[in-house]
Description:
This protein is an alpha/beta fold. It has 14 helices and 16 strands. Helix 2 packs antiparallel against helix 10. The radius of gyration is 21 Å and the shape is globular. The chain binds pyridoxal-5'-phosphate. Pyridoxal-5'-phosphate is lined by residues 113-115, 118, 141-143, 200, 204-205, 233, 235-236, 260, 270.
Amino acid sequence: MGNQIAFEEAKKVIVGGVNSPVRAFGSVGGIPPFISRGEGGYLIDIEENRYIDFVQSWGPLILGHTDERVLDAVKDAVSRGLSYGAPTELETEVANIVATLFPHIEKMRFVSSGTEAVMSAIRLARGFTGRDNIVKFEGNYHGHSDSLLVKAGSGATTFGKPSSAGVPEDFSKHTLLAKYNNIESVKDVISEEVACVIIEPIAGNMGLVPSDKEFLHELRKITKEKGILLIFDEVMSGFRADLRGAYGVYGIEADLVTFGKVIGGGMPVGAFGGRAEVLDHLSPNGAVYQAGTLSGNPIAMTAGKATLEVLVKNSKLYKVLETRANRLMSGFEEFAKREDIGFQTAVRGSMFGFFFNSEKVSNFDDALKSDTEMFGKFHKEMLKRGVYLAPSQFEAGFISTATTDAMIEETLKIADEVFTNLK
Ligand SMILES: *Cc1c(COP(=O)(O)O)cnc(C)c1O
């Protein structure tokens, strides 16, 4: 069976043929390859086409597909059962790895997705402060829970409007919006009625847009002054931009930090943590309810632990991955310049991003000015030649330890050709 037929069959029984919307390739056209397996830095589809994979399951697979250290640990764990619904020492071990890397995270809790981690962290912030309002940034994604599905409105937005059907305005009216990298827009909406400000400190869900250092330091300062909890959503950037995520890059301690993606090593895991004083408001110690049948699942914890152990032991690998990401982005930039195509790039550790845009991108409004049509064409031509990039202009790219220098060079050769015929 080929990709075309597989997609048709899937669409009959699965909405849109996919279980997460962007996978349907709607914004780039064409059909998504159906995957039969991964191999290191490659994805292989059911037609045996081989792709250099710069998506890596949307971030989790920093060691690439089929890393033996992770797979062996998982196989061993599977032989002892898939789930217990009771505590294991494994959970404590993974929590200790995180607490060692992030000294301001004294206690944490594991859940099964990034969405759940953020949703729970917000509830905890509200329970801890006794305040209802939250502030988020336009273009930042924090999973699909109701109060966070509010994105960019017009410039003067204060009270949020839901950006999905099915979210009552009543649910999102406590979500205030600010502009990324714009401290004045934060000052405009914060008050002593705000429970928390949540931010992707290294934003990866409007393309890759890292925050300015001064902006982030100022954000830390003004939230502290008003007794507002600052939440760093490091579901994507944690263990990705740096071993210590944004904390490693900026040295700023958030009150709550959320994790996902890499922390599960390819299995469904999310986590949130912070000072004991805050976390102890969570049940069973406190009044904020939060629970999960499969939370701390032993197979998921095993994959996460095996992955984190490799990262901790080989922390120099972030420099290697960053060098590769820089090589890739400076190559793309060179081809774009040669063809007189407006192009912006960013790299943070193993994360990279590029925009077909003539101006610097530092917030959502800037990102939206990108040429998505040209991106779509670029994406299609790269895919045809065996390079698997995220199927949207507004997603980050990822380098894994299995993405070799040779794969980068091969990608550049392909991109050189594709840029030539892009305009
Ligand atoms: C992916 C992501 C989420 C949501 O995580 P899921 O596991 O998809 O629910 C939340 N926040 C950020 C920053 C993310 O990148």
